[in-house]
Amino acid sequence: MTTLPAGTAARNGALRRQALFGMTWLGLSQVGLHLIAVATSLTLARLLTPAQFGIAAMATVAVGIVSTVANLGLPTAIVHRETLTETHLDSAFWTLLGWGTVLWVGVALLSPALAAFYQAPAVTGLMTLHAGTLFLAAAAAVPNGLLVRAMDFRRLAWIELGAGLTAAGVSIVLALDGWGSWSLIWGPVAGSLMAAGAAWAWSGWRPRARAEREALRDLLSYGLDLSGFTILNYLRTNVDYLLVGRWLGAEALGVYTKAYELVTLPQSKLVPVVTRVLFPAFSRMQDDPTRLRQAYVKLNAYVALMSVPLLLGLALVAPELVPLLFGGQWTGAILPTQILCAAGLLYANGTTVGVVLFSQGRTRLALRIAVWGLAGITACVAAGSRFGVAGVAWGIVAYATLAFPVVQHLTNRVIGLPMRDLLRGLHPAAVSGALMGAAVLIARWVVTDFAPWLRLLLLVGFGATVYLGALRVAFREHFNEVRGILRDLVRTTPGEPA
């Protein structure tokens, strides 16, 4: 039986260089994916109607819920486990292959019922097609887990870029050809197929025809709690889509989806770059709590330094940005975008909770948090939905405001971190952001009569100048530290780890 080591990087310098190397590649990947996503979104927003986006979102949310259990948490267990054997990998692969097939067939059989729930017959076919991504994700789960375990983020970055380009190209071509909502589903299916093939080609691993119950139990003891958390967390972050689509209709869901996607860009594109790299790194700090606490405080500080100017700035310039990006038919998304930015500020830092809980093996606590979170957000969204899309957005803000201190307190207790230490790390971003917001609000009075595109450029430029200036003058140590990290990232060439 061959034993696969968990990794032998040195505890300090070498691990930091590996992390910077990973962030460089994933950062480049996310920049590329963001550009692809923006170009695709702008193009499709002009080719398709809000109702067509809404119909596709109905199918996507439903399949997304099921996708949270597509890998049973086994890839993450592969990364987390210190001692891993070939038997573990073989057992995980064959289990996932069968599980992915069951999920695909199951979703196809249940799709007519969901279509009836939404009163949208087209959802049946869209769901059945989109469910093919469940099988592809399950089939590629072990190779992807091995790439993450090895911290081979260069290949992972290329896989993601290739999948993004494939999905974008297929969706746009089909939308131009008049495929409507189907174009929004065929694109992700094609991207998933490309990603699965690349993961198999680059992982270098091939399964053997064997599986052992004991080896599978070793992985599932960690993975099942993680899967439970993942599905509940997905429901928590998508229950608003389900309720808006059911109670307010496809067009309202299309508007809300566009606003939510715009607000969560920092969370969905920037934060995962850091957390994906730091999960294997944090897993190697399980026996060094002091080092882990210091790393977690810095992680939250850096996330805040990125997310505060982006989200606060978005709320301030949404009246100019949304129509310019998506066209006049999307003006209904302006107010929800502004409201959701308040929740986004809390959500961005909330995404760092998982990397601590999972790296420390506290999946059961994460599961409990997800149960209460789902109940809380459902109640808030249901109450707000009586007041339309804007009411749903206010419901999300209310939930985030109530949940953030509780979840953060529970997470801090795991690693023995006082809340004051965490808040002290967020202070520079909060103060600099407040100064930026006040300055931009005053500047709006000056540029009121300018053309929308010119007003947008001036406000963004002025806001960025004020934020960086405040950070440099009032918090020079933090400014220099971030500048040093960015310099190291640039110097860490995308070839081999430094």
Please state the structural category. Answer: mainly alpha
Helical stretch tally: 20
What's the mean pLDDT score? 85
Largest sheet: 2 strands, antiparallel
- Helix-strand string: EHHHEHHHHHHHHHHHHHHHHH
Any overview of this molecule?
- The protein has 498 residues and is mainly α.
- The protein has one domain (3-491).
- Helix content is 83%, strand content 1%.
- The protein is built from 20 helices and two strands.
- The chain has a two-stranded antiparallel ribbon with strand order 1-2.
- The radius of gyration is 23 Å and the shape is globular.
- Mean pLDDT is 85; it is low at 1-12 and 493-498.
Briefly summarize what is shown:
The chain is mainly α. The protein contains 20 helices and 2 strands.
List the helices and strands and how they pair.
Blueprint: E1 3-4, H1 13-47, H2 50-67, H3 74-80, E2 84-85, H4 86-118, H5 123-130, H6 132-139, H7 141-149, H8 153-176, H9 181-203, H10 213-247, H11 250-263, H12 265-283, H13 289-326, H14 334-350, H15 353-359, H16 363-384, H17 388-415, H18 419-446, H19 452-474, H20 476-491
Keyword list:
single chain; 498 residues; mainly alpha; two-stranded antiparallel ribbon; globular; disordered N terminus; disordered C terminus
